[in-house]
Amino acid sequence: MNEELAIQANDLTRKFGDFAAVDQISFEVSQGEIFGFLGANGAGKTTAIRMLIGLLAPTSGKASVAGFDVYTQAEAIKRKIGYMSQKFSLYTDLTVWENIRLYGGIYGLSEDNIKAKAEELLSSLQLESVRDKRIGSLPLGWKQKLAFSVAMLHEPDIVFLDEPTGGVDPITRRQFWEQIYQAAEEGTTVFVTTHYMDEAEYCDRVSIMVDGKIEALDTPAGLRQAYQADDIEDVFIELARGADRAE
Amino acid sequence: MNPISVQNLNKSYGGVEALADISVEVEPNELFGFIGPDGAGKTSLFRILTTLLKPDSGEASVLGLDVVDDYRTIRTKLGYMPGQFALYEDLSVRENMDFFASVFGTTLEANYDLVAPIYSQLERFEDRLAGALSGGMKQKLALSCALIHKPELLVLDEPTTGVDAVSRQEFWQMLQQLKSQGITIIASTPYMDEAEQCDRVALIDNGHILNIDTPEQVARNFDQPLLAIKASSIYELIKKLRSYEWADSVQPFGEYVHYTDKREEPDISKLELYLTEQCGLSEVEIKSIEPDIEDSFMNLMQKEVT
Amino acid sequence: MSSFRAFVIKEFKQIYRDKRTLVVLFGMPMIMMILFGYAIRNEVENAQVVVLDASQDEVTRQLISKIDASNYFSVEGSIQRYDEIETLFQQGSVDEVLIFEADFARKLKRGGQPAVNVITDASNPNLAQLIQQYSSSIIIDFQQQWSANGGTGPGGISTHANMLFNPQLESVNLFVPGLIAVILMLISSLMTSISITREKEMGNMEILLVSPLRPMQIIIGKVLPYLVLSFVNVLTILALAQWAFGVPFQGSYGLFLLESVLFIFMALALGVLISTKAEDQQTAMMVSLAGLLLPTVLLSGFIFPISSMPMVLQWISNLIPARWFLVIVRSIMLKDSGLLFIWKETLILLAMTLGFIALSIRSFKVRLE
């Protein structure tokens, strides 16, 4: 396996019965890259991510994440990655501080380390004033920014973000992306899915999945050029319109 | 008489203000959009308009009827699609249609013409359970169900959330078609780019309406010169621009960064010099651009805060 | 009206499609019947007996060994003093104590009526009653044998039954009335409240409210299928009780079914009331289970006799609808009581039903708040 690659997938396939939810996808993600993983509803994105984060065994093909094999070293992978999704990120009935401590504890950080990191995180997000507030009482945008920071708490090699910005206001959405830029700058690989097509343009490279296959993979500029489109949304619509899968 | 007329509407939940002094008029046969993030108050407003909530104060009338006093009559005239698609997942496509048709005292056959453009796409799945449909298909079924009784007004709360870009585009096309049949439509969405699909939009944030206008005019209301700037490293570029003495707002926009200056007219050549010479950024590109609705929204949001 | 019909049809379809719940709904009464039925039948086996034989003659010895020889009892020892009895029971090591009065054989031969005192621990009333019945029949059997062998005058052994801890033995009932109450509560209240809150949770309630359907129609449409299901279950339990377990039924079937329907209405109204307060299915379920089902099981007299409860609980049990239903059903089933004897309980149940219906109509919101 190539040391420089954060993710490497080769003919990765997952079947449910006869149905290939993910059908021989191959791609590579370099360290420190922001990789946009797009696809229509039901194209197989969620299944693909579940295989990469060690929650679902592939049917065939090869894949390694952070240098570990998804078949045999799923537990090692889990320690090296961070994960955040729109649906579940933080416990709404715990306070900001309790959530940070909980996740620090789950990833085995020492008490001192957690404290130091928590302080740093709260001050960089300017959330010191709400440290003892329950997550449920915070605005969505704050929650999402905090959830991202918590997913980064244990300094993972790769962070998987599943529709992290759904419903968030445009300013907070940008602050969120600045967090992503910063993480990437510091060497973390960012693997992100989104329904906001304009967000695809923030990524270094973008893949578009249709009916279980990766139909296009390039830089945003490269994709626009290849499909002679004004933006990624047009590229996406052009590709996904041909889909015949209805989830 | 406007299909929707709202004056000084207020609504709070346990001390938290969801709607603050909202006033808006929707004209007949308009496709009107309420654009704003989650928690802006869109759903509260729609629930008041659909008579599901009572306002704390202020007036609201729908199709000329008061939302509090005449709620019963309003309910027979509306087509409503709540935030969740609210289909019966254990009933088939056809059974859902028939159910909602009967509830409104009609049949699919009687109003087939109206729903045909949408429902025809679902007909090959008629026997499939609604729970087994894709997000886009559920969305179409929910719209068909909301339309089945030929409502004069269609109220759609976040109909495109969680649905992929293709389905979203198709959905707006369907709404255009319904509008051409004389139906007034209001829809809410957190996606700024969907504003351009509407005749007029209200930008809404934090319980306040920031602006009501046509999408073009909303964008034009942005009153500062706007620059789009690009460099090899976006992150570096953002940081450097933020520390530039004349920087007003610096916001990433895809591969560009949108920049406004504290001065009336930004000095582009000086800025370029600052970025290349002083900061050592490479592949710097600066151009003047027309603001879009998102620029405008953010601008208004920040003004609202200050 | 056609919109109401569509709603009811939809409800039946949804119930019918939810196979797992359906199996539970119809399987549960049978499983409970079987569990309770067999639990009660098999309990008397080698019950532990201790004797206090003040006479120590050949008759008492014969009688004791006859009891010991049966499958039901095993004589574990003897004691000398009365005050040991309570301790033995409290230790839980003994199921029954038999006390023979002094001069037993002589009295019997003279044609007197020597007494056997049968003392049982009635904190488990069903068991206690069975043990007594079995003991008595063995004693009667012994006496008949003894007389047949020509050993007696006109007298006979007189058996005195005493129960410790729960002398009135109120829950000696058959478990069927209690079971009916529990199952009706479960189906009517729990299922109704869950099914209404599910509409809320999925967002369907919003559409239903914003439709020509009246709130009353929504409620009745929701309740009707469960009324039918509950009624079917009453019949199932009754049939099983009689044919599979031979539970006697003395009274009028018509009256019984009418009272059951009244109880079902009460439970449905409770279910609707819960659903007007609970926002999601989970809350509805917790409230129904903890707030309705547990009291029905524990405080209605189904398992624990009301008279042996602390006063506070006795007082609370008056508020439990199942308590009155149990009285009614037991009277009908066991004593053939007509409405004349149970009108008071029926009236209480009726008042509760109307009260709950009024409350739930008042609480049902035509809006979301």
From TrEMBL, chain A:
GO MF annotation terms: ATP binding
Species assigned in the record: Fodinibius salsisoli
Keywords: ATP-binding, Nucleotide-binding
PANTHER family found in the cross-reference section: ABC TRANSPORTER G FAMILY MEMBER 20 ISOFORM X1 (PTHR43038:SF3), ATP-BINDING CASSETTE, SUB-FAMILY H, MEMBER 1 (PTHR43038)
Protein name: ABC transporter ATP-binding protein
Residue ranges of domain ABC transporter in the record: 7-236
UniProt xrefs under InterPro entries: AAA+_ATPase, ABC_transporter-like_ATP-bd, P-loop_NTPase
Keyword Nucleotide-binding annotated: yes
Keyword Cytoplasm annotated: no
Coiled-coil blocks: none
Pfam family, one: ABC_tran
Gene3D superfamilies: P-loop containing nucleotide triphosphate hydrolases
From TrEMBL, chain B:
Keywords: ATP-binding, Nodulation, Nucleotide-binding, Transport
Nucleotide-binding among keywords: yes
Domain ABC transporter: 4-231
Superkingdom as given in the UniProt entry: Bacteria
An example Gene Ontology molecular-function term: ATP binding
UniProt xrefs under InterPro entries: AAA+_ATPase, ABC_transporter-like_ATP-bd, ABC_transporter-like_CS, ABC_transporter_ATP-binding, P-loop_NTPase
Keyword hit for Transport: yes
CDD domains, sorted: ABC_DR_subfamily_A (cd03230)
Family to which the UniProt record says this protein belongs: Belongs to the ABC transporter superfamily.
Name of the protein: ABC transporter ATP-binding protein
Organism: Fodinibius salsisoli
TrEMBL record, chain C:
Family annotation (InterPro entries): ABC-2_transporter_component (IPR051449), ABC2_TM (IPR013525), ABC2_TM_bact-type (IPR047817)
The entry's keywords: Cell membrane, Membrane, Transmembrane, Transmembrane helix, Transport
TM ranges: 21-40, 174-196, 223-245, 251-274, 286-306, 341-361
Domain ABC transmembrane type-2: 116-367
Pfam families hit by this protein: ABC2_membrane_3
Superkingdom, taxonomy of origin: Bacteria
Name under which the protein is recorded: ABC transporter permease
UniProt membrane topology term: Multi-pass membrane protein
Subcellular location: Cell membrane
Chief location category: membrane
Family: Belongs to the ABC-2 integral membrane protein family.
